[in-house]
Amino acid sequence: MVSETLAVGVPAVARRRFGYWRLTGALVVQVLAVSFALLGLIQGPGWWFALMLPSAFLLVAGAALRTIGVARGLVPVLQLVLSALIMTAAFGGGTGLLGLIPTPATVQRWGAYGQQAMLSIYQQGTPAEALPEFFFLVVGGACLLAVILDTTAIALRTPAFTAIGVIAVLVVPGALLGDGLDPISLAASAAAFLWVLRCDVRTRRPGTPRPGAALSVGASAIVVAVLLAGTAPGFDRGGAASFTAGGISIGGTVTPLIDLGKDLRRPAAVRALSYTTSAAAGQYLKLASLDQFTGSVWKHRERDTKRLSDGATIGPVAGLSDQVKTVKIQTTVQIDDMTSRWLPAPYPVQSVKGLNGTWSWDPDDLTIGGINATTQGQKYTASSLLLQPTADQLKAAGGIVPADVERDLFLPPNTPAIIGKTAVEATAGAISEYDKAVALQDYFRDNGFVYSTQTPLKQGYDGDGARVIATFLDVKSGYCVHFASAMALMARSLGIPSRVAEGYLPGASSGGTANNPGEYTVTSDDLHAWPELYFAGVGWVPFEPTVGRGTVPAYTRPETTTTVPVPGATSGATSAPKRVVPTDPANVAGASSTAPPSPLQPVLSGLGVAVLVLAVLLTPAVLRRVRRRNRLRRLGESWGGASVVWDELRDTARDLGWSAPDTETPRAFAGRIAAAVAGTEGEEAVLRLLAVRERDAFGPPTRAVAVGLADDLVRVIDALQARAGRAIRLKAALIPVSLLPAAWPSAANAGRPA
């Protein structure tokens, strides 16, 4: 009878624990299935690892904690603790205690990440750039998702409610992706959900599987999921289109140049704005400077800004000498159907009057951005300077690049060689940096390049990344985004600081005369991008390389010959001092690494720390379980098992805080245990173990194998643990004092006397 009980009881516990591991594996697959639905939200593969590694780690950690005996309800709490360690190590910036335990400063830093993430979401489209703030959201979401899945499926034993967490995640791509949610991803998520339910059933009711019923239910659910993905609003592949406004939206994504291309391909132009100006001709209206090149995209570098006051002076103009002729102009703009956080105005703007809402301006490039406002419906007057540098002034410009401009020389190490090679070929014979800039502009306008908004899209090289530009230089067909990006990158390869400006062409005038052009109308067809190059003493100078679009600046025409001296430069110089072109951020002031650090790096560091902490936490528990398992295995396999049983009983009692000195007789020790577990199966079991122990110690020698020792031992251990509090059981599992050497007082006389 005893051996039959052992055959039923101990394997049942093992099956239940194996079932938890099986259910944990199903939850990991569920996260994996959900991750496929998020493809296309963030560029690169890093976000996927940032999602899967923390979630899989926390789920596996939960299974490991349950295996060593931690109560199901306590596991989610420990998972939250591990999540806090991961988030502190990865995104705490050294503010946590020992770099692991969050402090108020850590929470404040997390809040800053969250605010920046919300701002970046507003600014970006899909796929968004892999920014640190997005990795903060991904890792935090992964930790939260893992805890929710583990809690609902295992701790609360309600696996059906894991669907809530899954649906919450699927809503994100359904709302943000332009093509909606992929039906295959939704079907995979449904299949993973069904597997979770199946694993839970097998854990609760082990028996012969019924694959036929499971397959029929699963197939039906997957069909429903595919139909839902194809028809439900927000989940269909075209569902996101219904949320797109009919007007122009600029500056709302991390890829503004790509969005510019989408607007240029509109089937019908949309009136964006109108303006009048005191200048003799229409003006380029600049929205933003895209001065940070990541290798895959040009974007506006975020930096400190100043609050804009109505009519207050904006400036000074970076790099501008008073030797350069300027003309003050007034431009009154009426926004019609254009929404942007950036304000269109002629560069360089000096002041703005009439804006509604709160705005700020950037001291580096004088662009104006909304804090709690956009351009929609605004009417304002901008005062600007019309710069009129001469060709001779630009030829004489050069010298040392200011520290805050050196970053505008950066090129990623993996920039395609064709960009630098083409730049050298196009500027062969050019001496000054100005000559090289004009040569680059002429190269694009005179060497068979064709303006087309469709060719890049059809041939798969639309965008502004380095590889895209390499293809553009080979195909020689594209639109302003490609021309501006190519010239800016080629200028950087030659040592000339550059950036890309985004804005509008002057538009079409109506109702005016030669002396009074009247009102200009600007539409979505006038969206434009052009390069700006930096020349010391002049500042940022625009060029126009796009063939068939815009106007070539007067200072790049051969007839511009007037000489005006520029401070710090010799008018008779034939070449400017050679600049060092950094292809490594370490050469740029304030940089400290050879390449922009991957946002995944702190995630891996934080996860590594959490793994190390968990390993240290679980090592004693694992060693203790291995010792107990070895003892149980030895029982029934060899004679003399009574002493093994007694060793395990004493160790278990010590782990639970009992005093169990080796000098105490087995009968006295067994009496204390029997009193503690009175009324349970453990009471009779410990008395049977005592009888075997005394027979083994005082009876005649025998090599017979005692039957049922393991079963009785498990019963006594279960009874002792059941009578102990939850905190004591957790301490016994994680900090087993029985592992300490026997000579240590804490090992021999731990805790209370029972």
TrEMBL record:
Domain of life: Bacteria
Residue span(s) of domain Transglutaminase-like: 472-547
Residues passing through the membrane, by range: 20-41, 47-65, 77-101, 134-153, 160-178, 184-201, 213-235, 603-623
Keywords: Membrane, Transmembrane, Transmembrane helix
InterPro entries: Bact_TGase-like, Papain-like_cys_pep_sf, TgpA_N, Transglutaminase-like
Biased composition (Low complexity): 552-570
Location of the region described as Disordered in the Swiss-Prot/TrEMBL record: 552-600
Coiled coil: none
Database matches in Pfam families: TgpA_N (PF11992), Transglut_core (PF01841)
Name listed for the protein in its UniProt record: DUF3488 and transglutaminase-like domain-containing protein
